[in-house]
Design brief:
single chain, 148 residues, mainly alpha, globular
Length: 148
């Protein structure tokens, strides 16, 4: 339980860390914004591929439809994070979500309210951890729309 709480804190802080990195290096961020966007999409793609490899089922395809309706990235990352805490590969998903959070914080550095909203959207699905619900494949399918 302590390990899960520690992972949740570290992963959640990544958005704010990305914001402060961008704040301290504003001039460099302007020229490298497209590269950070590409890197963010690559990490999300890796999350999708790893999730599909371990947990592919019918919920993946339901998630594709759900992702079309709700195109926010962070609730799905929160679902993957909270569901991965039930399994042994939680460090893999936590580190990938951490990297995605840094890139998102860097890309959204002009809009701090958006970063706080993403943080809240990430933390809401943590409730799934207490109910032992595994929705990784659903969230992975929904994340496909965030690659667009």
């Amino acid at each position: 339980m302590q390990e899960s709480f520690f992972l949740m804190i570290i992963t959640s802080i990544s958005l704010i860390m990305g914001y402060f990195i961008a704040y301290l290096s504003r001039d460099e961020i302007k020229s490298a914004k497209k590269y950070f966007l590409i890197l963010k999409k690559i990490t999300i793609l890796i999350i999708i591929l790893v999730s599909a490899y371990f947990f592919l089922d019918i919920y993946f395809f339901i998630g594709i439809v759900l992702g079309f309706l709700l195109k926010e990235t962070w609730p799905y990352l929160g679902i993957i994070f909270s569901s991965s805490l039930l399994f042994e590969n939680n460090f893999l998903f936590s580190s990938l979500i951490f990297i995605t959070g840094i890139f998102s914080g860097i890309l959204e550095y002009k809009n701090f309210r958006r970063i706080i909203l993403n943080l809240i959207l990430f933390l809401i699905p943590i409730v799934l951890y207490f109910f032992n619900i595994n929705l990784i494949s659903l969230a992975a399918g929904a994340l496909i729309w965030s690659l667009k």
